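User: Structure please.
Assistant: Input sequence and predicted structure:
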Amino acid sequence: MVNRLLGRPRAVGPLWGATAAAIALGVLAPLAALAWTALGAGAAHWSHLMAHVLPRAAAQTAMLLAGVGLLTAVIGTACAWLVTRAEFPGRRVLQWALLLPLTVPTYIAAYSYVDLLHPIGPLQTALRALLGFDSPREFRLPDARSMVGAVLVLSAVLYPYVYLSMRAMFSTQPARLMEVARLLGEGPWGAFRRVALPMARPALAVGVGLVLLEVLNDVGASEFLGVTTLTTTVYTTWVTRSDLGAASQIACAMLALVALAMWLERQGRRRQHAGHVRAMRAAPRQRLRGARAWLATTAAALPVLIGFGLPAGHLAVLAWKRAAEGHGLSLQVVSGALNSAGLALGVTAIAVAAGLVVAWAARPTNGASRGRAWWLGSAALGYAIPGTVLAIGLLPPALAVDGRIAGALGLPGLPLMSLGAVLVAACATRFLALPVGGIEAGLARLPAPLEQVARSLGETPLGTLRRVHLPLLRPALTASALLVFIDVMKELPASLLLRPANFETLPTLLYAEAARGSYEHGALAALLIVGVGLPAVLLLSREPAVRASDVETTRRAGEEAFMPMKEAT
């Protein structure tokens, strides 16, 4: 009825569509360049890689992915079930504190735990004193630099991806299904195993898929913990051996694992249904008492302690010691912080603007073309590509363009690389999925008649976006910008490979100190990186449920946005 009264909204103009298509093609361009470079490297590289490099790297990558995926699934699911279905001391604090490990990048966690678990480090020293041993020769724990250590460290900081998606799923599962299971004779474990967990499998697939993508993107932690993954092999082949062709071929092999993780995540999203949330009573939390209550508190607090408390506390102690010795905030750290902030601000502005264009052009209006769905898919693809792969794919076309610009202007060197434009482009491409997804979700929550009324009153598409949608999209834009800013501040692989000469960010400073064996010198830089991630945790810690007041707020905001147009007509 509304469509008949107000008319069908016209499709986006050709400029919007062309710009969105250009952005989507820009994301796909590094993959095409990567394939071209790999094909041009020759078959000799492939035979050597297949015989001596890929089998070991692929086996270790598969072991790491399997171990981290399984462990994060168990930890994230158990913690989500506890905080959504049980009432115990500290539950309200722990339900958001369980997200704190997201503030600790994987490479920082690896550096911290190698230092903490050193044979003469604080943890083993305290343990030997407790057990009555005098030296590491009498008692020492297994070396943290191993496959088991890598699985444990990465799982400790990546489980929140599973916890967040499972918490949202468990909090919206209807109570009547669990009640029916209990009436049919199932106990708490049986109801969870046979009812709640099968319903939550799509969310579990999404969370584990994101974890696997983060593991594939990791360079610093895997290298420092002595695990030879495909990602570290790409990095060493390019940087140490200066063999871009072989690195491109290894990166192409990595894309098979990326495609597998993306398929797993997409399968999970495809089977998600929101119909259960509507007008259904959520399952009540069971109040635990006595020993069971404190056991639940301990179980939920342990991942926070391991994933955030110990690394952050260790960093704080090291930074305090360095400050007490007169080595506080050095000029190098200040410069790295300013470089990181400048890079993050530039990437955030570009990514949010590009995300707005793509999401607005591909919004589901009546006049929109079905083919525009590929804009969203292509724009979101960058987040699934590891930073090392993206950097290798972006480098050949960037060098070609840079050479032409330098030749045309008579400039020495490579101006785009020197100015950091290639690094900005790589980070914007990688994190474009965050604003695209956030703005797309924000547009989906706005009532369709808002745009129809604006267009019927003579407003142009650009005017509708400026006067109606942008004010209502402010929360989504703010959240997307915050997430992009924080992720760029933590980004290591692309910064290592594409940064200009003498341009250091906080992650690259920390990586250099760890490579020299003086990790404690970069403790303040690591602490700053962890502190920057705290706002994202506060943003993500909000309950996933949508309140009825949100709908009323949107309606009132829409009426206020239309008042000037109504008065004008």
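Strands lie at 86-87, 286-287.
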